[in-house]
Design a protein that fits this description.
about 140 residues, about 80% helix, globular
Length: about 140
């Protein structure tokens, strides 16, 4: 297994566990602002670690600021709406499969913008993902 696949697998496992922590938080009726603040603390720790090991100073370009703000805002919306869906009684076995279809968006955009190949195998995988969603939500 090459490093990129291993890193992606770790990312998948951590993202899945992080998502499930939303379900635990809503089941225990943890207030969202407190939960959101606590989930932000590890990001600040990571920034400190990365900056302390970086060979270059932190720089803010127009593109880095714009992409950071847009990505952060979209991430906040995604986090908040999934949390709210769960807190309003949404079943994790339905909410999580729906949100996991997020993978379709970057695959399609990578094809359209960066001209990455979209093979029959990849299209089949996306189709099976949609089929899995349909089956999991029934």
């Amino acid at each position: 297994m090459n490093n990129t696949i291993l890193l992606a697998t770790i990312s998948m496992a951590c993202a899945g566990l992080a998502s499930f922590s939303n379900k635990i938080a809503t089941e225990n009726q943890i207030l969202f602002p407190t939960y959101l603040l606590m989930t932000s603390i590890p990001y600040f720790g990571l920034i400190l670690i990365l900056q302390n090991t970086a060979k270059e100073p932190m720089t803010f370009t127009r593109l880095s600021v714009t992409l950071g703000i847009i990505g952060g805002a979209l991430g906040c919306i995604a986090f908040y709406t999934a949390y709210t869906a769960l807190s309003r009684g949404g079943q994790g076995s339905i909410i999580f499969p729906i949100t996991s279809l997020q993978v379709v968006i970057p695959v399609v955009l990578s094809y359209l913008i960066f001209k990455e190949p979209l093979t029959l195998t990849k299209l089949s995988g996306l189709g099976f993902s949609v089929l899995a969603l349909i089956l999991l939500t029934r």
